[in-house]
C-alpha cells in the first residue's frame, strides 16, 4: 500500500436479532427485570487496521439500536430497549522499533450520549457522551539476557476525565497508571 510489506485489514459486521421473550433490566437502583416480549436489536460495526514494519493504526465504529415491539402501555406503545450500548468510536496510532523490541502509541475511545432510552422513573435515564485518551509503551527484548521478558506501561484516562459508562451507577476511574513485567517460561 504505502511501503513494502504493509497491510490494511477491513472488517464489517451487520447484526439483526428478532427476539421473542426478551428479558430487560429496567431500573438504575435495585435492578428489576421484566419480560418485554418481542424485541429487535440491529446494528453494524466497522473496523480498519493498518500495519507496517514501524507504524500501526486502527479505527473502529459501532452503532446498535434496540426496540421493544411489544406495547408497554397505551401511552407508550413501543419504545427503546434501555440496555443497548451507545454509539462508539475507538482509534489507536502507534510506532514500533523492531530492532529494540519497543512499541508505543496513543489510544482514544469516544462514546456518544445515549438518548435512545425510555426515560421514566423506573427506566434508564439518558447518558452524556465522553472521550478518553491513553498512552502506552511496551518493551519486549529480541536479544540478550532479557529475552523472554516483556514490560508494559500505560496511562489511561490521560486527562482525568470525569464520566460514567452507560448502565453504570459509579463514576469511571480517573487517571490510571499501569505497569507490568512478565516473563515467558518454557517454549
Number of strands: 9
Q: Sheet with the most strands?
A: 9 strands, antiparallel
> What string gives the helices and strands in order?
EEEEEEEEE
**Quaternary:** single chain
The whole-angstrom Rg is 22 Å
Q: SS-based structural class? A: mainly beta
Q: Count the helices. How many?
A: 0
Q: List low-confidence stretches.
A: none
Rounded average pLDDT:
87
Shape from CA axes?
Answer: elongated
Distance, first to last CA? 35 Å
Q: Give the DSSP E fraction (strand runs of 2 or more residues).
A: over 45%
Percent helix range: under 10%
Could you walk me through the main structural features you see in this protein, from its secondary elements to its overall organization?
The chain has 187 residues and is mainly beta. Helix content is 0%, strand content 53%. It has strands at 7-25, 33-51, 55-68, 79-80, 88-97, 102-111, 130-139, 149-156, 176-183. Strands 1, 2, 3, 4, 5, 6, 7, 8 and 9 form a 9-stranded antiparallel beta sheet that branches.
What can be said about this structure in brief?
This protein has strands spanning 7-25, 33-51, 55-68, 79-80, 88-97, 102-111, 130-139, 149-156, 176-183. It is mostly beta strands and 187 residues long. A hairpin with a 4-residue loop joins strand 5 and strand 6 (102-111).
Amino acid at each position: 500500500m504505502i511501503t513494502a510489506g504493509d497491510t490494511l485489514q477491513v472488517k464489517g459486521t451487520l447484526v439483526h436479532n428478532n427476539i421473542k421473550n426478551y428479558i430487560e433490566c429496567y431500573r438504575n437502583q435495585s435492578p428489576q427485570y421484566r419480560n418485554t416480549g418481542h424485541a429487535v436489536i440491529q446494528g453494524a460495526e466497522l473496523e480498519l487496521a493498518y500495519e507496517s514494519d514501524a507504524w500501526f493504526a486502527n479505527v473502529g465504529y459501532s452503532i446498535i439500536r434496540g426496540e421493544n415491539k411489544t406495547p408497554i402501555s397505551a401511552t407508550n406503545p413501543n419504545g427503546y430497549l434501555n440496555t443497548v450500548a451507545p454509539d462508539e468510536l475507538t482509534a489507536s496510532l502507534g510506532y514500533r522499533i523492531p530492532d529494540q523490541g519497543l512499541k508505543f502509541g496513543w489510544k482514544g475511545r469516544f462514546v456518544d450520549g445515549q438518548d435512545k432510552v425510555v426515560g421514566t422513573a423506573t427506566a434508564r435515564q439518558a447518558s452524556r457522551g465522553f472521550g478518553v485518551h491513553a498512552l502506552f509503551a511496551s518493551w519486549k527484548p529480541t536479544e540478550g539476557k532479557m529475552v523472554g521478558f516483556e514490560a508494559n506501561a500505560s496511562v489511561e484516562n490521560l486527562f482525568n476525565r470525569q464520566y460514567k459508562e452507560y448502565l453504570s451507577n459509579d463514576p469511571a476511574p480517573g487517571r490510571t497508571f499501569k505497569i507490568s513485567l512478565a516473563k515467558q517460561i518454557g517454549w
